[in-house]
Amino acid sequence: MEMVDDDGLTRTGTVWTATTHAITAVIGSGVLALPWSVAQMGWVFGPLALVACAYVTYYTAILLCDCYRTPDPVKGRRNHTYMDVVRSCLGPRDVFICAIAQYVMLWGTMIGYTIVASTSMMSVERSNCVHKHGHGADCRASGNLYMIIFGVAEIVLSQCPSLEKVTFISVVAAVMSVAYSLIGLGLCAGKFASHRAARGTVSGVKVGGVGGVSATTKTWHSFQALGNIAFAYTYSMLLVEIQDTLKSSPPENQTMKRASLYGIGVTAIFYISLGCVGYAAFGNDAPGNVLTGFYEPFWLVDIANVAVLVHLVGAYQVYGQPIYAKYEEWLAKKWPHAGFIHKLYTVPLPFSKSHSFKFTLCKLLLRTVFVALTTLIAMMLPFFNAIMGLLGSVAFWPLTVYFPVTIYISQANVKRGERRWLALQGLSAVALLVSLLAAVGSVADIAQRLKHVALFKSEL
């Protein structure tokens, strides 16, 4: 018999379902840019950034786990979303700022995932072409059709009622993320072993000379690399929504802390390994998407890219469902009697007498329009690394550090001026600096690319 929680809802989530949601949310397209990111900063600052961002993400996640219920972390009132936590602990001004940062980040990630999904499909087409016709053949591929196909698939999946109802998709996505990370790591390890020496330098991509870049480009790319790494670990803006799927026994904060440890721990192992081994394999010539640097064995490269695609299909919904839930909740409160929003339609599913598809016209139409708009923007701006860096800069300080730290200070009554308060504020200041540098580097790179790339033209 299913237990009903104190708010009248039935929750079935466990540490393992939460871990799969966490891994699906954290291990995403950002992992593919890590060798390139390490290459921009070199053997000292690259690995250091990977370790530091992992620790900061885990530490602030632990702080946030205790704020799901307020004022008491075990018996207090539930906060169903990240913004609910901010509202309970801070106030309306912070809620507004949080809303902008969180939903821009979630939507931006969906745009980024559409770009990466098309890149993976283009990579499969190109690797098969090279294998069949040789490296001298013209094997360029266009991504617009693939973005449209991916968008249509997400329109269908967007009709799932809630995040809890996409657990199976999330489990499959988590498995796929581990699969392509392992394949990418294996391919990089094989390439590294083939030349029997670690490539790369202490300072990364060199300035000037043959094969070098200008000092300005080096600076922008280094800042952008920081954003890529920060984006790769971004997790806090979905933590509360994931925690809201958990059963209340044992206490949700205990379960979520374990899930965060497992999810971020697995992620950090993959990220540090792939970032460093990928840099050792390619050196300063590491590609922006590491899988595009391989053509053989073509079948294994294809499997990795298909795994990326399957993962992104599920991860897209993990990021999209909170957006759908928020604007549909607002519309329902704004027009409580509108049939367009509230009237439920039921369509029996073929080959199943016990299941049916239930929807409202609002849900069917608005989710479709939202995914279509997301796909259109991705087709306009297909800049993988620059988009990843910009997303990282948008999310890292406010969502991953500032709000969790500030909420925890309020929840735990940390006094201004005491040692713990100073340490937390120092962490927030450093994270702000990282976010600003990453934003500057990414915007500069996007501006530079727009001078040489036509809109709606994605090629590999």
UniProtKB/TrEMBL annotation:
GO terms for cellular component: membrane. Its main location: membrane. InterPro entries: AA_transpt_TM. The chain crosses the membrane at residues 12-38, 44-68, 95-116, 166-189, 261-282, 298-319, 364-384, 390-409, 421-444. It is found in: Membrane. It holds the Pfam family Aa_trans. This is Amino acid permease 8-like isoform X1.
